[in-house]
Automatic annotation (TrEMBL):
Gene3D superfamilies, alphabetized: 2.30.42.10, q2cbj1_9rhob like domain
Superkingdom of the source species: Eukaryota
Protein name from the UniProt record: PDZ domain-containing protein
Entries under InterPro entries matching the protein: Fungal_Metabolite_Diox, PDZ, PDZ_sf, Phytyl_CoA_dOase-like
Alphabetical list of Pfam families matching this protein: PDZ (PF00595), PhyH (PF05721)
Domain PDZ, first and last residues per copy: 24-103
Source organism of this protein record: Effrenium voratum
Matching PROSITE patterns: PDZ (PS50106)
Length: 358
């Protein structure tokens, strides 16, 4: 009987929680066998189901237990999927458990966990359609003003425009992809207010606050445009580590022919970057990208680490996206090697998320 117990413990794990079920947290350890449970990867993760007769039931786990740590790694905030996968494959596997503490606010904010786990989430109707159309008209006017300005003084190019990947189909081809920094004109200010100022916990401002903090710095503000004939970008990330969060906001309806941005969910992690750099094609081939087809005013919010690319524009229409990027409160983007800082010089370091939040 004793040898059977030792073998069971080796394969299925042992219970380290002690006799008290009333403690704030407890630790269970799994061996080499199947876990016998299903986990809902919210923040923090929650045990969703327990297999009858499996290791988890033997260890007295129940649906509703919250997972606080996995092998010493805290998971109160959601982790990227590939990082979770590596943790859950470790053996022995030690889980620190606590009781579920939920609220309406927690439930509503869990959508932002998708950005932590998958790297991207869609936010419908982030801005009223009529405001998106007004901003689009302003963008066209501002583009011509900026072109006139740089023709007079070429040193103003870095002030008004940002570098963009794959601006032309070839060395002698016309520019079909460009990036313009926006001034804080009234229509731009109203657009930021509409995007960020809602008290609604499902709104874009709540997402930025949850992910980057209320004191997050406005890091980028502009529009990125692809003209008909633009070629696809190479797959890339915007930052190597957690520091920036960006929203792309459609200024007109985007069809597949117009070249929506493609994202590879779950690649917002060092593990994914390492595998991608070692063998890009082999890494991406089994993964399924997503390419949200946005209506005017819809947005996607993404972690700057997630792999993505702008697709080619095979339509006869210009595709325009407003972009808004915030630097997380605790992050030093420049020390992490982030050189892109697409914002007008007069706005740099002067605007914080809290200025738009209720």
């Amino acid at each position: 009987m004793q040898s059977y117990a030792k073998n069971f413990e080796k394969v299925f794990g042992r219970d380290d929680r002690g006799e008290s079920e009333a403690s704030d947290s407890s630790v269970v350890e799994f061996g080499t066998g199947p876990l016998g449970l299903e986990i809902s990867w919210t923040a923090p993760p929650v045990v969703a189901a327990v297999v009858p007769g499996g290791a988890a039931e033997v260890l007295k786990l129940q649906p509703g237990h919250v997972v606080l740590e996995i092998n010493g790694t805290q998971v109160a905030e959601a982790l990227p999927e590939m990082e979770v996968e590596e943790l859950m494959q470790q053996r022995p596997l030690r889980l620190r458990l606590g009781k579920v503490q939920d609220s309406d606010r927690t439930q509503m904010l869990r959508r932002w966990d998708l950005v932590r786990q998958q790297g991207v989430v869609q936010v419908p109707q982030a801005m009223p359609k009529d405001l998106a159309q007004e901003l689009l008209a302003f963008m066209h006017e501002e583009y011509h003003r900026c072109l006139a300005a740089v023709l007079k003084d070429s040193t103003r190019v870095p002030e008004l425009f940002s570098n963009v990947m794959m601006p032309r189909a070839g060395a002698d081809a016309p520019t079909t992809r460009w990036d313009m920094r926006l001034p804080m004109e009234p229509v731009v200010y109203r657009a930021l207010g509409a995007l960020l100022g809602h008290e609604n916990l499902e709104g874009l401002g709540a997402g930025f606050e949850d992910l980057a903090g209320k004191d997050a710095e406005l890091w980028e503000l502009g529009v990125t445009v692809t003209e008909p004939g633009a070629v696809p970008q190479a797959v890339h990330c915007d930052a190597p580590a957690r520091c920036l969060y960006t929203a792309f906001v459609a200024l007109q309806p985007i069809s597949y022919e117009m070249g929506p941005t493609h994202f590879w969910p779950g690649t917002n992690t060092v593990v994914a970057h390492r595998r991608f750099e070692a063998a890009p094609r082999e890494f991406l081939e089994p993964l399924q990208p997503v390419a949200p087809l946005l209506d005017a005013g819809d947005a996607v919010l993404y972690d700057s680490r997630v792999l993505h690319c702008g697709a080619g524009n095979a339509s006869q229409q210009r595709r325009a996206l407003m972009y808004v990027t915030f630097r997380a409160e605790s992050a030093d983007a420049e020390s992490l090697g982030v050189r892109q800082h697409s914002i007008r010089p007069d706005l740099k370091g002067r605007v914080r998320l809290r200025q738009f939040r209720p």
